Amino acid sequence: MEWQQLEYFHTVARVEHFTRAAELLSVSQSALSRSISKLEEELGVKLFERKGRGVVLNRYGKEFYAKTSRSLQELAQAKQEMIDLLDPERGTVSLAFLKSLGASFVPNLVSAFLGSCPRVHFQLFQNATSVMLDQLEAGDIDFCLSTVTETRASIEWQPLWTEDIFAFVPVGHELGNRRQVSLQELADSRVIALKQGYGTRTVMDRLYDQAGITPKIMFEGEEVVTLMGFVRAKLGITLLPDIKGVDMEGIVRLPVDEPECRRTIGLAWNKNSYLSPVANRFRQFLTEYSGGLTLAE
């Protein structure tokens, strides 16, 4: 049994189609089919069943896939470690981050890092906190930059900074001329919120629970710009950090004095996964970079 056979098998299993798998592997479909047939002959069992124009794993294939996944992952990691030893300043850093950090912080961070490490390539993703932590556990990314709201056994968190969360209300709101408000005073206002799974939504839910209030959710969205649009249209209020670059026309930002409204942003990684030298260098750089910023940045 050869490593290439396992790679071919796993690709077909993932895409469930021989033609698409052959295209991904840059081999002919006949060569791919011969490799899978040879593997099945060595194992003495069929691994796939036909399903329409595609294929799916049968019970033997599922068992073999599960048993060989770790081996392939370890082989890929070993190969990457050898490459990293030859050139520790070249490589890829995969980073997932909150959408609220995408307007200013992450672009400036990446630009600053590439100024000192120009041969590094970035893979960037934006997702909800829960999705990013799933990506970390699966080994799909190196780091997650998010609100520190959830702990998992395999995840290591490094808090970076803490920032205020404000109430954003439409111009003309009855409390819009106040210097600050309490959450209790906003209890009757309809709420425009991020969807469940986003770290800032988790913080908001905890703040309302702490104040003994059941929020009147009017709309749940995924984009800060959308939430602000609903606030601007006088459809409700929202709780968010101060996000640079967001159009504030028709909106008033109010500090919340009770309860204390803050969120902590941290860097997370899978403590069981391999981090390349350049990924470790990026982690150190991010720690120093974020430590030198003011909240306005």
TrEMBL record:
InterPro entries: HTH-type_LysR_regulators, LysR_HTH_N, LysR_subst-bd, WH-like_DNA-bd_sf, WH_DNA-bd_sf. Residues 1-58 form the HTH lysR-type domain. Keywords: DNA-binding, Transcription, Transcription regulation. GO terms for cellular component: cytosol. The keyword DNA-binding applies. One of its GO terms (molecular function) is DNA-binding transcription factor activity. CDD domains: PBP2_GltC_like. PANTHER family: HTH-TYPE TRANSCRIPTIONAL REGULATOR BSDA (PTHR30419:SF28), HTH-TYPE TRANSCRIPTIONAL REGULATOR YBHD (PTHR30419). Belongs to the LysR transcriptional regulatory family. This is LysR family transcriptional regulator.
